[in-house]
Specification:
- The protein is mainly α and about 400 residues long.
- It contains 13 helices and no strands.
- The longest helix has about 55 residues.
Length: about 400
C-alpha cells in the first residue's frame, strides 16, 4: 500500500513534467507559426500592390516573398515531424491535430494562389481573402495551443501572444487594404468603414494582450507605439476621411506600405519577445517540476520502510509522511486547477465568439471587424453578454443545419 501510494504521487509529478515538455515543443511550433504569419502578411501586401498596379510593380518582390514563406513553411514541417509533437503520447491532441491538418491544407493552396497572382487571373479582393484564410488557420492553431495548456502561467503567455498576433494580423490587413486604396487613388465609403473597423479591432486585441502580457513585453509595446511615425498617422487620416490623396498612385502605395511595414516590423519584435517569454515560462515550469520530483524522491528515501510491503498497518511515522506528500501534491494541483478554471471560462467564451464570427464571415461575407460589430450590436440590443449571443447563434445554426440535412433525405 505504501509503495503504491508513493509511486502514484511520483507518477503524478512525472505526468506533469511530460505535459510541460509537450508545451515546450508546442511553444516552438507557435514561434514558427508566428514567423510564417509574418512573411505571409508581407506577401499579401506585396500581392495587393502588384495586382492593383496591373502587374507593373513588385513582380520580383513577389518571388522573394514566396521564397521567405517557403523557408518558414519548411521550419513548421520540421517541427511537426519532430519527436514530441506526434504520436499517441501527445495528450489532449484531437483538436490540435485537426488544426494542424487545416494549417497544412491551407499551405497547400499557396502555390496555386501565387500562380494566379502572377498571372493576374485573380482580383485583389479575392487574393486578399485567400491570404486572410490561410493566416486565419495559423492563428487558430495558436489559440488551440492555449486552450489545451494545463499550466496557468503558460496559458497566460500563450493568450498574450495569440491576442497580440491577432492584433498584428489586423494591422497587416489594414496595410493591405489601404495599399489597394492608395494604388487606386480612391477610398470609397466601404473601404473607409473597413479601415475604421480594422483600427478598432486592433485596439480591442491589444487591450486583451495587456491583460495577460508580462511587464517586459508591455514596456516594449509601449515603446513601439511611441515610435509610430507622423507619416503613418497622416496616411491613416487620409484613408479614413475620404480625402483624395495627392501624388502618383504607385508612389503613394509604396510610401504607405513602407511606413506601415515599419510599424508591423516593430510589432514583430514585440511578438518575438512574447515568444521568448513563453519559452522561458515553459522551461522554468519544467525546472520547478523536476526539482519538486527530486525533492519528493529524497523525502521518500528518508522514510522508514515497513517490515512488509503488504502489511495492513503502517507505522505512524511513515503513515504521516505519506499523507503529507499526498496532501502537498493535492494542494499544488488544486491551486493550478483554480487558476486554470478561471482561464478556461474566458477561453470557452472566446472560442464561442470566434466560432460565431467565423460563421458570419463564411455565410454573409463579412470581415472580422464587421462580424464582431454585428455580434456586439446584437448583444447590446438584447442586453446580453457577447458570448451568450455567440452561443445562441451557433445553436440556431446547428439546428438549421440538422433540419436542412433531414429535409434532403
Amino acid at each position: 500500500m505504501t509503495l503504491s501510494a508513493l509511486s502514484f504521487v511520483q507518477e503524478s509529478k512525472k505526468s506533469e513534467i511530460a505535459c510541460l515538455q509537450q508545451l515546450l515543443q508546442l511553444g516552438k511550433l507557435v514561434g514558427a507559426v508566428s514567423q510564417m504569419i509574418h512573411v505571409l502578411q508581407r506577401e499579401r501586401g506585396t500581392a495587393n500592390i502588384f495586382l492593383c498596379s496591373h502587374g507593373e510593380t513588385w513582380r520580383e518582390q513577389l518571388s522573394e516573398r514566396a521564397r521567405e514563406a517557403q523557408v518558414a513553411e519548411k521550419t513548421i514541417n520540421q517541427l511537426l515531424t519532430s519527436e514530441g509533437l506526434t504520436g499517441p503520447n501527445m495528450v489532449n491532441a484531437s483538436r490540435l491535430f485537426s488544426r494542424i491538418a487545416s494549417v497544412l491544407h491551407s499551405l497547400s493552396t499557396l502555390p496555386q494562389l501565387r500562380k494566379q497572382v502572377l498571372g493576374l487571373s485573380i482580383s485583389q479582393p479575392e487574393a486578399m481573402r485567400a491570404y486572410n484564410d490561410v493566416i486565419r488557420t495559423h492563428l487558430a492553431l495558436v489559440f488551440e495551443t492555449a486552450d489545451i495548456s494545463g499550466d496557468p502561467s503558460i496559458s497566460r503567455a500563450l493568450l498574450a501572444m495569440f491576442s497580440f498576433m491577432q492584433g498584428k494580423e489586423l494591422a497587416g490587413q489594414e496595410r493591405a487594404t489601404a495599399a489597394a486604396g492608395f494604388a487606386a487613388r480612391h477610398f470609397d465609403d466601404i473601404a473607409r468603414q473597413q479601415l475604421l473597423g480594422l483600427i478598432d479591432s486592433q485596439e480591442r486585441c491589444f487591450q486583451t494582450f495587456t491583460e495577460f502580457a508580462d511587464a517586459r513585453s508591455l514596456a516594449l509595446w509601449q515603446q513601439q507605439r511611441g515610435q509610430d511615425s507622423s507619416d503613418f498617422e497622416r496616411f491613416r487620416r487620409i484613408a479614413c476621411t475620404l480625402i483624395t490623396p495627392e501624388g502618383e498612385a504607385t508612389d503613394l502605395a509604396l510610401r504607405w506600405f513602407s511606413v506601415s511595414t515599419a510599424r508591423i516590423d516593430g510589432m514583430k519584435r514585440v511578438e518575438d519577445t512574447l515568444e521568448d517569454v513563453l519559452m522561458a515560462s515553459c522551461r522554468q515550469r519544467i525546472h520547478e517540476a523536476q526539482t519538486s520530483l527530486a525533492l519528493q524522491q529524497q523525502d521518500i528515501e528518508k522514510m522508514p520502510q515497513p517490515e512488509s510491503h503488504y502489511s495492513a498497518l503502517l507505522p505512524p511515522q511513515l503513515s504521516r509522511s505519506v499523507l503529507e506528500l499526498v496532501e502537498q501534491q493535492s494542494r499544488q494541483l488544486q491551486a493550478l486547477d483554480a487558476e486554470l478554471s478561471r482561464l478556461r471560462v474566458m477561453l470557452a467564451e472566446r472560442k464561442l465568439i470566434e466560432r460565431a464570427k467565423g460563421l458570419l464571415m463564411q455565410h454573409h461575407g463579412l470581415t472580422e471587424p464587421q462580424a464582431h460589430k454585428t455580434l456586439l450590436e446584437m448583444a447590446m440590443n438584447q442586453n446580453k453578454k457577447l458570448s451568450e449571443i455567440a452561443d445562441a447563434m451557433l445553436a440556431v445554426s446547428a439546428v438549421l443545419g440538422k433540419n436542412g440535412r433531414n429535409a434532403g433525405q
